[in-house]
């Protein structure tokens, strides 16, 4: 055979019996290189960070996510301080969910008709301004619970428009085969913030006071605003067939019709509703921590461990997510990951050991991480650019709504036949329903995502 040299003409390689032979890839150095490659492949794939625009957004997100979690802790804490009532704290669910649904769907439609960079700047600025307003209200003592809830609702609306827009931008920045890696990096940062942010808030409140948490959140948002400002223009790509676009109810309906026409997208939403609607057991954590794991009334170490277990499992899975971009049959991977989530939750409900409970929840969280990465990648890959905003809006509503469905039935079920049994039934239902959904729509099982050529 002939190979081109780096300089000069091609040269003939000996292939006859007299040609020198040597064994390739068997020496100590070769084995060391192979081991290093295996180790690198096990850890998170960081190639998307080579794209400057994505890297800036991701690095800024580390700061912003932790800042956002400070406000997540501050709002219910402040309301409880003002009222002394958990019922009033519960109103944050209503004041947060309604704008999340309405503006998540509408914001996705807006993201499909205007420059997404501009929309990110507008909504990001709105989030920062509401955090500043919450700081003024808390520091000055000039507001009441209804002012806080109103500002919280406005901030939720801005977040609902910002998140689908941001997710719709990512496929324009990096190659399609690197979307699973990018989504794994994003989710790892988010889940890390979900652990670190509340812990940091607990440390800071006695030191700097609750109002300062809002100010720190607003300052942290400057990092993401800077990264967004550095983005190139990201106008939606138009085609001749769908150049006419609608903002408002008609645009939202177009999005739902689009989901119905694409079975892979439809099942990706349905299977997430199944996973979270049946399986999310967070409502039973307080009762199980006290009655099963021996926490004092009001909560203790067990309660904190249970709430941290699922995000901890997701973070660990994210850190060792290097293999995700090598999986071609992503429909199969999502189905198996959802079943792993359900099995972990079911086993959690059966155990009387705190550390086994944490382990099972963490395993379930790892399954949820894998499922989320691939479902996000499917959404970004299957949906055309002109529909990505609306699809991401539906995604935000599904992700937010599923756990709240679980909250509604886990509470009465736990009161009726025990918290552990409620969790186990929910986990088992996840496995059964996920298999049923995929069996009904086999195109999802057959879905194959792009993988990078080796």
UniProtKB/TrEMBL annotation:
Its main location: membrane. It comes from the Bacteria. SUPFAM superfamilies: MFS general substrate transporter. Residues 1-27 are annotated as: Disordered. One of its GO terms (cellular component) is plasma membrane. GO terms for molecular function: transmembrane transporter activity. It is found in: Cell inner membrane. This is MFS transporter. Keywords: Cell membrane, Membrane, Transmembrane, Transmembrane helix, Transport. InterPro entries: MFS_dom, MFS_trans_sf, TM_effector. The keyword Transport applies. It is a multi-pass membrane protein. Residues 261-454 form the Major facilitator superfamily (MFS) profile domain. The chain crosses the membrane at residues 57-75, 87-106, 183-205, 264-281, 301-324, 331-348, 417-439. It holds the Pfam family MFS_3.
